[in-house]
Amino acid sequence: MSSDETAEIASRFPCTFLQRKDSGPAQAINRGLEMATGDIICWLNADDAFWDPTTLERVVRSFTDLPEVDAITGNGYYIDNHGRFVSPIIASRPDRLSLRWLTRHDTVLQPATFWRRNQFRLDETLRFCFDWKLWIDFFQDGKNILYVAEYFALYRLQPESLTYQDSASRRHEIYGMIKIFSKRRPQIAWCWFIWRAYQLSELLNAPTLKAAARGANEIMKLMSGDRISST
Question: Domain Glycosyltransferase 2-like, which positions (predicted)?
Fold first, then answer.
């Protein structure tokens, strides 16, 4: 349950504000999804933002022009705590927006993703990878997901966020996802190795070990053509 100024800010706008205890972010978002009444669904974390005032208009236009499409995802930009632009987040290989690649690693930018309202909800047993699991559910159900080469979102690099902290718990959840969905032994073994390295780093309070594992992961990702990585 948020303890920041969200309630005060929400009171300035014509919206429904719900604040109560939850088991984690997935359950909190699911409550919002259940309350949603629109035809097009998304969620935006408090730290993030839409690209500009035209974002939702452009999204609606895409769904109107493409009735066969169930979901669209686009580009974003990393911003810092002060809203300054850091670096773009662009799908360099849109052809990798597929179930085959999603079982290897998450290739979808969550705040830049929108879908037609459906029955799918986030897996509340997950704390870090619930959005990744949702995209896999979409593909397994045969949803038509389209990459749109437009900027839709600003993704804030917030030191307090779960993703930014990049903990051993997060790497363990990634390992669990890969073990369930990939079934490729080299990928499973590598994710296990990265998780264990992070775990040891935190146990020994040795941040250099985590940094080394992160560097090794980038090298492995490059050498394998994105086929093996923990991300």
Answer: 2-114
